[in-house]
């Protein structure tokens, strides 16, 4: 998480979350494919490091989403009421 979310434009927050989510998704897909091959008897089981990395990437994406929601809340609080 970034130290000062007050200066982070919403578009930047959104882009950072999308990038983190995409990295996590790609890692999850690789892990899923590895598991499929293993179950079919055509490959080795995924390594503990690969599993840990996938979990870490998903956690990072969750943190980016929390940050994004914080940016959204801050933007809402700054908008004048109609």
Compact overview of the structure:
The chain has 82 residues and is mainly alpha-helical. α1 runs antiparallel to α2.
Descriptive notes:
- 74% of the residues lie in helices and 0% in strands.
- The chain is mainly alpha-helical.
Tags for this model:
82 residues, mainly alpha, rod-shaped
Fold topology:
Layout (H helix, E strand, L loop, with lengths): L9 H30 L8 H31 L4
Helix pairs in contact: 1-2
The parts where pLDDT drops under 50 for at least 5 residues are none
- Structure class: mainly alpha
Q: Compute the CA-based radius of gyration.
A: 18 Å
* Content of β-strand: under 5%
Number of helices: 2
**Termini, distance in Å?**
33 Å
The largest β sheet comes out as: none
Oligomer: single chain
Would you list the SSEs in sequence order as H and E? HH
The averaged pLDDT comes out at 89
Tell me the helix content: over 70%
Identify the overall geometry: rod-shaped
Find the count of extended strands (DSSP E, 2+ residues): 0
């Amino acid at each position: 998480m970034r130290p000062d979310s007050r200066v982070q434009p919403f578009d930047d927050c959104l882009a950072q979350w999308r990038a983190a989510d995409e990295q996590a998704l790609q890692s999850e897909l690789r892990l899923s494919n590895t598991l499929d091959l293993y179950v079919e008897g055509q490959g080795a089981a995924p390594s503990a490091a690969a599993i840990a990395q996938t979990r870490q990437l998903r956690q990072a994406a969750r943190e980016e989403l929390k940050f994004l929601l914080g940016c959204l809340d801050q933007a809402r609080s700054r908008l004048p009421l109609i």
